[in-house]
Design brief:
759 residues, Immunoglobulin-like, 5-stranded antiparallel sheet, 1 helix, 42% strand
């Protein structure tokens, strides 16, 4: 809870004019890359820092990039690389008032581009920490290795008003070789020391270098004092050495807690303990240092410092006795937001957040002094991240999102970003927005107007593209992973919550000519649903119950409209374009727009449903995607009605582009449809299946295909009714639904679909 003096300081700090809210932006920025940090400056320019991942598995050639975009995200003003022959990774970035970017990371490259150049050789494979400064034009002012040849891992960087960079991290060994400057704080209490180092403005000299304190988050106050937060993960057995604390601090010790990571508990692990340290501006002393944890540990995910000097923390804990000041949850695994007073002696506010943290969660202070939390939540709680956890805490409200856009046991969307605004006075939630995607690590920042920026990695190019923004042409590859960023504020929402492929409700990236897509949202159409495919109609209408959708001003066929869902066909005419802008209108009012990259083909197989698990005969089956499939007699394939081995099963596909015959936007296929040009292959439980024919589906809208395949006779392990898995390749492309790649350089693949067969 803020004091009156703290509120006065905050009001004074906000008295300057701030820029107006900026329009939302979303884009897939750079293929085969990750963004580790995003920042903005006072003029609204956007800075991103990350790594270009190897494009082939097992290729160890990561490179660091720093980019500056204009406020509208229409172009890179510069894109600078720190190029080296071996792995070089950046984990942290900050920007000063003049628009200089400062980054920190590690390299094991013997040819790391040190600026100014050094004549001595760089140790090989040493994982050295580096810091670099990039000027507003993209030139490297300095790039330096500052650890005297010792290995260490920077995790955070900040810069003071004199342009002096402060870097903090872990892994400095037992202090051998790592520099400690005269008069600096030093406490060689462990074999794997944290560190905090300050460079002068030229990057050539150490202002101070501290051993014994350091972490994953940094902030400075007006006097230059350094705030550090992180998590200490000691490995048992220990000698009792711990991260240092100070007299009078809120929590000077904790109870060690171990949990088993092997069945016989031969390899116990530790829960990790959250700490906060305030280091003097000259690096000579600890002003305070405290733990904030519980009997089963606490993980720190982010830190921010407000105008009054209060420290705000977010993270996750398994501790039933984590020090909440109000609203303690019955859930054992819980996210938190905690406020520590300027003396480090008392918690002013500590509340459960209601969403999981730990996967790139962040905390920022907005211009009004309220808290902005950004992080990920999955469809299921991950016990490997939070051991001994109860089920996932409640997900935040989706705002304009329907259930089809949110992660869940029956949704094909597996993860989403939440952006939550929380009152700094009482911890109440003031607003939440959710952004689904195939997303991993998240970095965020808040500008002077309260706009929230977040960025990270997208395993598939399925984040929305705002109209007229820069995007990587690699998005048309459909399965390429890459870096994304989004900007939002709480003042306006696009009525379109998410857009999916109509076949499987998976989030759409690029679109293909003739593809069927589905828009979800609230109040986007009539309360009384209407169908656009009626008996006797020669074509699908482009205006239905007050709804119209255009692609580059061309009306599109509407198959179904309602207040929460619209099914529409992308016109075949977009085939000549690199991208297309869709506009949704209802009763003459424009509700939303979205840009799509255009791919020649984007094949996907129709899915009947996703099920969390089921019983088929004597078999217990886990989560599955059930294919929309017909047996040879025309009945629906199911566990109760399996296909016979050797018989035909029909699958239905969409997104085939222009490879069919007689393709016309909105037209309906006749009773004697033509063949689809191209190749189709199907594998069933790793056996190759015979494709009998691949034709346009009779009576369906132009562009929908029917693939008739035969269940292989080679499947001999079937019980009377068995689920089997199949994957489809069309014209050498994996057919959706698609799964994101799981390692650097890997690409997405088809998710196997389930059909049922019997001997």
């Amino acid at each position: 809870m803020r004091s009156a003096f703290a509120l006065f300081l905050l009001a004074f700090s906000l008295s300057a004019q701030v820029p107006a809210n900026l329009p939302p932006v979303s884009t897939f920025l750079k293929a085969n890359s990750t963004i580790q940090q995003i920042a903005t400056d006072a003029q609204g320019y956007i800075y991103v820092c990350g790594n270009v991942n190897p494009t082939a598995p097992n290729q160890d050639s990561d490179q660091v990039f720093v980019g500056r975009l204009d406020p509208a995200a229409t172009k890179f003003l510069y894109l600078t690389y720190l190029t080296a022959s071996a792995a070089t990774l950046a984990d942290a970035m900050t920007v000063d008032a003049a628009g200089n970017a400062y980054i920190a990371g590690i390299t094991d490259a013997s040819d790391f581009p040190v600026v100014p150049a050094v004549s001595s050789p760089i140790p090989f494979n040493a994982q050295l920490p580096f810091a670099a400064k990039i000027n507003p034009s993209g030139a490297i002012v300095y790039a330096t290795l500052f650890s005297n040849g010792a290995s260490a891992t920077p995790e955070a960087i900040a810069v003071d008003s004199n342009g002096q960079a402060i870097i903090s991290g872990v892994g400095a060994g037992n202090g051998t070789n790592f520099p400690v400057t005269q008069g600096a704080y030093s406490n060689l209490w462990t074999y794997d020391l944290p560190f905090t180092t300050k460079l002068d403005a030229s990057g050539t000299h150490l202002v101070f270098s501290v051993l014994g304190v350091g972490g994953s988050s940094l902030a400075l106050d007006g006097a230059g004092n350094v705030f550090i937060a992180g998590t200490w993960n000691f490995e048992p057995p220990t000698s009792g050495a711990r991260y240092p604390t100070t007299s009078g601090a809120f929590q000077q010790s904790y109870t060690q807690y171990y949990f088993c990571i092997s069945p016989d508990c031969m390899f116990p692990a530790t829960a990790g303990e959250q700490y906060v340290t305030k280091l003097s501006a000259d690096g000579s002393a600890l002003i305070y240092s405290t733990f904030i944890t519980g009997s089963r540990g606490a993980y720190n995910a982010g830190m921010a410092v407000d105008a009054a000097g209060d420290v705000w923390l977010t993270g996750a804990t398994n501790s039933p006795d984590y020090p909440f000041t109000q609203g303690a949850s019955a859930l054992l695994s819980q996210a938190f937001t905690t406020e520590l007073n300027p003396a480090g002696s008392q918690l002013l506010l500590s509340v459960p957040t209601g969403v999981p943290a730990g996967n790139g969660s962040n905390i920022e202070i907005d211009p009004q002094g309220n808290v902005v939390l950004t992080g990920l939540f999955p469809d299921t709680f991950n016990p490997s991240v939070f051991p001994n956890s109860y089920p996932q805490p409640p997900q935040p409200s989706g705002g304009n999102l329907t259930s089809q856009c949110l992660p869940g046991p029956t949704s094909t969307i597996s993860v989403a970003v939440y952006v939550m605004r929380m009152s700094s006075h009482d911890g109440s939630v003031m607003g939440t927005q959710v952004f689904p995607g195939s997303l991993t690590n998240i970095s965020s920042t808040v500008d002077a107007a309260g706009n929230v920026y977040f960025a990270g990695t997208d395993g598939l190019p399925d984040v929305p593209l705002a109209p007229n923004v820069l995007f990587d042409a690699g998005v048309t590859a459909r399965t390429v992973p890459g870096a994304f960023f989004q900007r939002t504020n709480f003042s306006a929402l696009n009525a379109i919550g998410c857009v999916t492929d109509s076949t499987s409700a998976t989030l759409i990236g690029p679109v293909a000519p003739g593809q069927l897509i589905t828009l979800y949202g609230n109040a986007i159409g009539p309360t009384q649903p209407a169908d656009g495919i009626g008996v006797g109609l020669p074509a699908v209408p482009t205006s239905l119950a007050g709804v119209t959708i255009t692609f580059d001003n061309q009306p599109a066929p509407l198959l179904y409209v309602s207040s929460t869902q619209i099914n529409v066909q992308v016109p075949f005419e977009v085939k000549t374009r690199a991208s297309t802008v869709m506009q949704l209108s209802f009763n003459g009012t424009v509700l939303g727009t979205r840009q799509f990259a255009v791919a020649p083909e984007n094949p996907s197989v129709f899915v009947a449903s996703k099920v969390a698990g089921f019983t088929c005969g004597n078999l217990q089956v886990g989560p599955s995607l059930l294919a929309l499939a017909l047996n040879e007699d025309g009945t629906l394939n199911s566990c109760a009605n399996p296909a016979k081995v050797g018989s035909l099963v029909s699958l239905f596909v969409n997104g085939i582009g222009t490879s069919g015959e007689n393709l016309t936007t909105g037209a309906l296929n006749g009773i004697n449809p033509g063949f689809i040009v191209g190749t189709a292959t199907v594998s069933v439980d790793n056996y190759s299946a015979e494709v009998d024919s691949f034709i346009s589906q009779s009576g369906a809208i132009s562009g929908v295909g029917q693939l008739n395949m035969r269940i292989p006779d080679t499947i001999s392990t079937l019980t009377p009714e068995s689920p089997i898995s199949l994957t489809v390749m069309l014209n050498s492309l994996p057919a959706g639904p698609l799964a994101a790649g799981t390692s650097p350089g890997s690409t997405g693949t088809s998710i196997p679909l389930t059909v049922f067969a019997k001997p």
